[in-house]
Amino acid sequence: LPNSDQIETVDPIPGGVSSDVFLVKLQGEAICVKFAVEQLRVEADWHASLQRSEAEYRWLMFVQERFPNSVPATFGYGAGSSGIAMEYLPAELYPNWKTELLGGAIDRGFAKQVGERLAGIHAASAAQPGLRERFANQADFEALRLEPYIRFTAARYPALAPRLNRLADDLAAARIALVHGDVSPKNILCGPKGPVFIDAECAVFGDPAFDAAFCLNHLLIKAIHMREHAAALQGAAQALWRGYSAGIDWEDPAEVEARLAGLLPALMLARVDGKSPLEYLSDAAAQKVRERALQLLSRPEDSAAPLADMLDPDR
Ligand SMILES: Nc1ncnc2c1ncn2[C@@H]1O[C@H](COP(=O)(O)OP(=O)(O)O)[C@@H](O)[C@H]1O
Ligand SMILES: [Mg+2]
Q1: Does residue 27 surpass a pLDDT of 90?
Q2: Ligand nearest, relative to CA of residue 189
Q3: For the packed helices 209-225 and 253-273, what is the interaxial angle rounded to 10 degrees?
Q4: Gap from CA of 188 to ligand 1 centroid (Å)
Q5: Which run of H or of E encompasses 136?
Q6: How buried is residue 158: exposed, middle or buried, by Cβ count under 10 Å (0-12/13-18/19+)?
Q7: Cα–Cα separations (whole angstroms), residue 137 to 6, 68, 100, 172, 202
Q8: Burial code of 124-138, b = ≥16 C-beta within 10 A, e = fewer?
Q9: Which residues does ligand 1 sit against, CB inside 6 Å?
Q10: Is 33 exposed, middle or buried (0-12, 13-18, 19+ CB in 10 A)?
Q11: In this predicted model, which residue has the larger pLDDT, 282 or 38?
Q12: CA distances for 145 relative to 15, 27, 30, 201, angstroms
């Protein structure tokens, strides 16, 4: 390990919502140090346990062993400080996928790789004994995901509340595979050897359909937000699903698809009327997302629209 006099600079990296992230430059090297913060930087008053840092570290370690190119290498974890030291991935070599997408660089091949890798992680974890206990982070998943997104939205739509709360209850009860919990394009870097996943604070042994739905949701909302790129974004969503579904080996893919189709409109609605609405949506785009989600949710629960229709609304 370096001596303290080898540290040249310590600079904050902007953009963290639930953490302080720093770039530490050592002689000839750079590392990234991330600390979880107790109060999230969102408009709503949102506190979260610092335990989630350990969940993230464990998730990174799990993936690193199987897919070393898909996560930053970790150097250590400080339980007392909720800090993780990891490899620094410079934006010049690892552009953020969200930045790429919002800039109109929409690569279906990359989206497919995201799906394939995500399914690879889910498949490896479903087959690995002991993870259920190691990632029994259901309380944090409830506080960080189910309550702010799904249950908060349910409270605003009383007619949909039973259905939305049932989705949340099912997610809380599932013990199928290791879920990342925040697979949004902003937490995926476009590395020279494929997608690199960061920010696994919500990791839990739960329902893998959540990760796939969460990421597809971001692509579909961006298709509404960026009308001129709608076809490309829908194409990327379809490619992601193709890549993902081909890798489902832990259960019948049709079951994952059915849960995903149930979740997707709920997550859509949550990103406009939940506790953490997407910052980039105009009022008009938010209204479109809301209408689309409500239209999908107006169908009876047992005859949800097929996923293919959601990924290609013009079909
Ligand atoms: N290993 C890393 N190398 C380079 N930049 C990173 C790394 N980890 C995080 N960052 C930067 O810090 C930002 C916030 O980190 P992230 O883990 O996503 O935390 P948060 O939970 O606050 O979103 C990322 O969007 C990215 O720009
Ligand atoms: Mg993040």
Answers
A1: no
A2: 1
A3: 50
A4: 10
A5: none
A6: exposed
A7: 37, 24, 32, 10, 8
A8: bbbeeeebbebbebb
A9: 13, 15-19, 21, 32, 34, 72, 86-89, 186-187, 198-199, 201
A10: buried
A11: 282
A12: 20, 40, 32, 11
Distance 61 CA to ligand 1 centre (A): 16
Query: What's the start-to-end Cα distance of the chain, in Å?
Result: 57
Task: Please report the pLDDT score of residue 3 as a whole number.
Answer: 64
pLDDT of 204 strictly over 90? yes
Coil, strand or helix: which one is 268? helix
pLDDT digits (tens, 9 = 90+) for 245-301: 999 999 999 999 999 999 999 999 999 999 989 989 999 999 999 999 999 999 888
- pLDDT band at residue 4 under the 50/70/90 scheme: low
**Would you state the structure tokens that stand for residue 155, as one six-digit string?**
């409270």
Alpha-carbon gap, residue 74 to 13, rounded angstroms:
17
Q: Which of 39-53, 88-102, 237-251 has the lowest mean pLDDT?
A: 39-53
CA of 111 relative to ligand 1 center, distance in Å? 20
Contact 181, 204 (CB under 8 A): yes
Q: Give me the count of residues in the chain.
A: 315
Sheet holding 29-36, edge to edge: 7-13, 19-26, 29-36, 83-87, 74-78
pLDDT over 80 at 313, yes or no:
no
